[in-house]
Amino acid sequence: MTSLNIGGNQIKELPNFIGNLINLTELDISENQIEELPSFIGNLKNLMWLDIGHNQIKELPSSIGNLTNLTKLYIGDNQIKELPSFIGNLINLTEFDISNNEIEELPNSIKNLKNLEEESKKELEKIPIKKDIPKL
Predict the structure, then answer these.
(1) pTM of the model
(2) CB-based contacts of 80: which residues, under 8 Å, 6+ apart?
(3) CATH class as words, domain 3-125
(4) Domain coordinates of the chain in residue numbers?
(5) What is the pLDDT along the chain (136 residues), one digit of tens a residue?
(6) How far apart are CA 12 and CA 6, in angstroms?
């Protein structure tokens, strides 16, 4: 199995077996009631397309930074307040939707996403990049 769509099923949490589906290239868990993305999502290193939009997710697990093959990531329509710096590891992203969240600043590492298409760039440009605080 390389593609799994369990969107629109009112799921509240992802079943653990999904973390074992290491050959998945596409995963759609959109339009559910998921509040937390489990860390095992980082096991799915072959994912190229991930849609977690239209849920109630508040933050991304650090393990999502392991998904360096992702080209399309949709996290829109959640309750995410901050993008972690490891988002900059996803250098192959071409489409990145963060719309309708509560993100007020982007991490500096967002500059690593040099392959984004214009539409994704325009969306990100609406949000300021967090200023690095120099260490003393």
Answers:
(1) 0.93
(2) 57, 58, 59, 60, 98, 101, 102, 103
(3) alpha beta
(4) 3-125
(5) 899 999 999 999 999 999 999 999 999 999 999 999 999 999 999 999 999 999 999 999 999 999 999 999 999 999 999 999 999 999 999 999 999 999 999 999 999 999 999 999 999 999 998 876 656 5
(6) 12
